[in-house]
Write a structure and sequence with these properties.
By secondary structure, the chain is mostly beta strands. It has one domain: Metal Binding Protein, Guanine Nucleotide Exchange Factor, Chain A (Beta Complex). Helices cover 9% and strands 38% of the residues. The strands form two sheets. It has a seven-stranded mixed sheet with strand order 6-7-8-9-4-3-10, covered by helices on one side. Strands 1-2-5 form a three-stranded antiparallel sheet, with no helix packed on it. It is globular and about 40 Å long.
Length: 138
């Protein structure tokens, strides 16, 4: 994947995204905020250095969903696109479902499993973290 450009878009096509190369990380997030923002049991993300991404389209909007977190979406169709956090200031996190080649973004791990819904079963072959790997190292 290293030299590949991953392309995607919102549901209506008003916002187009590109991410160059491999993501820094991929993960499935089980936090309550991601569940609430997406309406799903968990959210799959691919984290890229912002210098390697392009977001085009005048309908791209962001809102501060919680302290230090901004979520991006299409202002026309409402598709969730990104999540940016002050704790990862140089990165843009994309919801993997918006990519044309979403299947290549298998999660490297699960984060915020402390908030996981009881009926969700985790893959045993990838690491799981109560919060994030960085927080658990400290």
């Amino acid at each position: 994947m290293a030299n590949h450009t991953h392309k995607g878009a919102c549901m209506c096509g008003a916002v187009q995204i590109e991410a160059k190369g491999d993501p820094v990380w991929t993960a499935t997030c089980h936090c309550a905020d991601c569940r609430h923002a997406t309406g799903a049991a968990m959210a799959g993300f691919a984290g890229y250095e912002t210098e390697n991404v392009k977001i085009e389209g005048g309908d791209f909007c962001e809102f501060e969903s919680s302290t230090n977190t901004r979520r991006g979406f299409c202002g026309k169709c409402g598709t969730r696109l990104t999540c940016r956090m002050e704790s990862y200031p140089t990165q843009t996190h994309f919801h993997v479902g918006i990519f044309e080649d979403a299947d290549v973004f298998a999660p490297m791990g699960n984060v915020y499993v402390k908030d996981k819904l009881k009926w969700v079963h985790l893959e045993e072959n990838i690491p799981s973290f109560q919060t994030t790997p960085n927080a658990e190292k400290n």
